[in-house]
GlcNAc transferase (Mesorhizobium temperatum), 281 residues
Amino acid sequence: MNATSVKRRTAMRGFALTAALLSGLALAGCQTAPTGEFTNIDKAQGSAENISSLSAVIQRSPQDPEGYNVRGSAYGRGGQYQAALKDFDTAIQLNPNFYQAYSNRALIQRFLGDQAAALADYNRSIQINPDYDAAYIGRGNLYRKAGRIQEAFNDFQKAIQLDTTDARAYHNRGLIYQSQSQHAFAIEDFSTAISLAPDAAEPYNGRGLSYLAMNDEDNAFADINMAIKLDGKNAEAWSNQALIYERRGDKAKAAKSYREAVRLSPTYQPAKDGLARTSTG
């Protein structure tokens, strides 16, 4: 389904969102955000070699804010958040209307736990450029994690109306539909996310959960297995695979998959509970 038809169907639905989450063990993992958010910042690479070359560019043009913005993105992808923050600060000092740098700095602020500063930066980015889809997606993620579901939905919807090609907008709107048990619409959004980012595991896992909620176990199993194939460290996908094995009565395979999920994420409660169920008796 293309973005235009998705927008039209969404406008026709117009349902009132609530904060209720999906109930039941099968959907316990549905609220996970997609990983790899730094892949959407200026396509920068976080390698030491790339950072070194970017530093050389900055040395040659120390008053060019774009160099700091790109190197900040590279630092962010490499997990060097304080260095990234410093570069985005410099980029904004050199160009106070650099809306991309505000949005990029907001993501760093989120990861550092300063949600108020992140929100202020996203708002500033959108104020400067009301058509910047990445800022809406980032702010939508911030709202969603804060439980401000309607505001999150509105931001993802706005990015989609701007014809974004960023899969996160569809994936995260799909998570909201899923949390409202609107599984047919969630599946549409997850499918669009997959078409935009076919190597991302999270939309497959999300779509698999919605298929499972609709008792389409075969499609659910295929999607969850694909999520594991794409990202073998996805604890939720392993737990969801285990759940399907458990539903099918294969406790041995279920326990094995739950055990892998617990190994990857020792605090993930659905996997711990599932392992306790399938490892006894």
